[in-house]
Specification:
The chain has a seven-stranded mixed sheet with strand order 2-8-7-6-5-3-4. It has a three-stranded antiparallel sheet with strand order 10-14-13. It is an alpha/beta fold. It folds into two domains: 149 residues, Aspartate Aminotransferase, domain 1, CATH 3.90.1150; 240 residues, Aspartate Aminotransferase, domain 2, CATH 3.40.640. Helix 1 packs parallel to helix 13 and helix 13 packs across helix 14. The protein contains 14 helices and 14 strands.
């Protein structure tokens, strides 16, 4: 009997998620052989000893008895109302609990929002570099990601004129990731106001990924996009994973604001999709009210002397001490996006460098090309290890780069 292969959906040909791809698989193999891997490829605070605030854990435990049944498709009311209160405290006054959808992490929320919007061939403006889930979700929902550049020479800031030049009759939405993953860039009010104006003029939906909104360093300030968008629909994405170090709780949300009157059909479609998956994880939702309304411990971690601050500084120091590296100092989030000076090599490839670093020094990073950029001399690493561990990482990187240069 001839056995025919099980074919995959062709749409997956355009989907990449190398953060958990070939390099990560090789890291698992090395760990099984007994090697200790420093995993800097993914923002997973719990892996480095960060704990979810105790008050959030207690809120879940105390409400487990109310968590055994399905909840409303949009989520439990206390969680949605807590998001409303946070939005109002930030100046977004036109949001109610009916405008908030709880999801199994921001990842599910992104998929729901795009699936409800896109038809085949519709275009979504996505930053380059981007968090690759955005590109993947656009493609999986039959849309086309169109990239606007956030170039290293422009401190990874978008160019509004380029955004205007990319608009077509098929453009449905624009994605903003602020503070940015992978670069750590934080956008100014003036820049966001100009992008908001473009979106309003062309009736684009604004998808604002603000999962790192309170993870800021120095004088950096986060401006919520929903405070600037009035004449078109704005969807703000956030959750417990990063600021509250609760990745495994899988709790995220979308808060819709702006012009909802002309988006009734779309919002109904989002609710339909939310209903089809019945509801989001209920126990984790009980932590939302306590998280948003309680003490914001993230500020201790990001202020001078805090652990995230020190790790960020260790990255800056490691780059400054390197003969090969440069970096735009991250103003937010939990990542840095250093560049390798390719003029010192006959050829250089970020994937090959990442594999060499993993094989020889047991450090796992994410190649910059994983984030949908055309250049191949950057890489992303998290700021989650201690400053001391990060210093050791850069010593190992320097040894690998010196070895690669000598082998030319």
């Amino acid at each position: 009997m001839i056995k025919t292969p099980v074919n995959t959906n062709r749409i997956l040909e355009g989907v990449r998620y190398e953060i958990r791809g070939e390099l990560a698989a090789r890291a698992v193999e090395l760990e099984r052989q007994g090697y200790e891997i420093i995993s800097l490829n993914i923002g997973n605070p719990g892996l480095f000893g960060y704990r979810t605030p105790e008050t959030m854990r207690l809120a879940m435990i105390e409400n487990l008895g109310q968590s055994e049944a399905y909840c409303h498709q949009k989520g439990i009311f206390p969680a949605r109302e807590a998001v409303v209160m946070q939005q109002q405290a930030r100046g977004v006054m036109d949001v109610t609990a009916d405008d908030v959808f709880m999801g199994n992490g921001v990842s599910e929320c992104i998929d729901l929002a795009l699936r409800a919007l896109l038809n085949s061939g519709d275009e979504v403006l996505v930053p380059s570099p981007d968090y690759p889930l955005w590109s993947a979700s656009v493609a999986l929902n039959h849309g086309t990601p169109v990239y606007y550049n956030c170039l290293p020479e422009n401190n990874f800031q978008p160019d509004p004129d380029e955004i205007r030049s990319l608009l077509t009759g098929r453009t449905r939405a624009i994605v903003l990731i602020n503070p940015n993953n992978p670069t750590g860039a934080v956008y100014s009010r003036e820049l966001l106001e100009e992008i908001a104006g473009i979106a309003e003029q062309h009736r684009m939906v604004v998808f604002s990924d603000e999962i790192y909104d309170e993870m800021l360093y120095g004088d950096a300030q986060h401006v919520p996009m929903a405070t600037l968008v009035r004449e078109t629909l704005c969807a703000t994405f956030n959750g417990l994973s990063k600021i509250y170090r609760a990745c495994g709780y899988r709790v995220g949300w979308i808060a819709f604001s702006g012009d909802r009157e002309h988006a009734k059909e779309y919002l109904h479609a989002v609710e339909l999709l939310a209903s089809l998956r019945l509801c989001a994880n209920v126990p984790g939702q009980w932590a939302v009210q306590t998280a948003l309304g309680g003490y914001q411990s993230i500020r201790e971690l990001t202020s001078s002397g805090g652990r995230l601050y020190q790790a960020r500084q260790a990255i800056i120091d490691g780059v400054n001490n390197s003969e090969f590296l440069s970096v735009h100092e991250p103003d937010g989030a939990m990542y840095a996006f250093p560049a390798v000076d390719i003029s010192q090599f006959n050829s250089f490839d970020d994937q090959a460098f990442a594999m060499e670093l993993l094989e020889k020094k047991h450090v796992l990073i994410a190649p910059g090309s994983s984030f949908n950029v055309p250049y191949r001399n950057h890489f992303r690493l998290t700021t989650l290890p201690t400053g001391q561990e990060m210093g050791m990482v850069f010593e190992r990187m320097e040894e690998v780069l010196q070895s690669m240069q000598a082998a030319q």
